[in-house]
Amino acid sequence: MEIPYPYGDTIPNSISVFAPNTPQSTLLENDLNHSICACFFHRATNRNPAFIQSKLAQQYGGQNRDYHVHTLSHKSYLFHIPEILNIEQILQDLLLWSNSHIIHLGRWNEDEGWNINPIGFKVYLQILNFPLQLWHPKYFHLMVAGFGSPLYVDDENTLGFDRSTLRIAIRCVDPSKIPEVIILHYDDKWRRCIVAVLGWSINGYSSNGVSHEPESGGRQLDYGWPREGPPITNLKMK
User: Where does the record place the region Disordered (predicted)?
Assistant: First the structure.
């Protein structure tokens, strides 16, 4: 059953973190896509993951260590399968064997345990007192990770030489989470950054559209939006 997104403060002592999709996460997902999940049922007599490793090595060659195993819970494990082997064929070959030993085998599902984000908002922010030594897209992500993910940065902040304020557009699922002040810690120092909302778009910005070209102009994070500035709407955040 799909869980509705907890807008506002419906969950006490909770925070949101928007993790960027990076080349590293893509590599991890590619590895996991060539994996098999195994779940031992209560009536299974042998719950040792080495039991499955031995079966894989016996049937498809190699050693137990060639089938790396990660513990997911006290009764479920993830087995990484060498890329030369076909996952679907393995699941078909081991169907009767796994049923006889009361073990469920299946592909790893990248959506397991996740909920779909609702339609988001495009919000335009101005951040005062942002440190010069952190003027990089990596730190822009970290700066807003608790309430959104960066979309675009003003041309004057990137192609130009304006470092007085950071003007950035973000995708935000719940605008009520945007703080007025961010305490930024770096090395053994800290500083107070003031956040002002310049405007926002209620057209919606779905998670599938974050990497697409914006409707009203603008360019990707590394380049910024056009010099005429963001398309400020008449609506203001309260």
Answer: 209-238
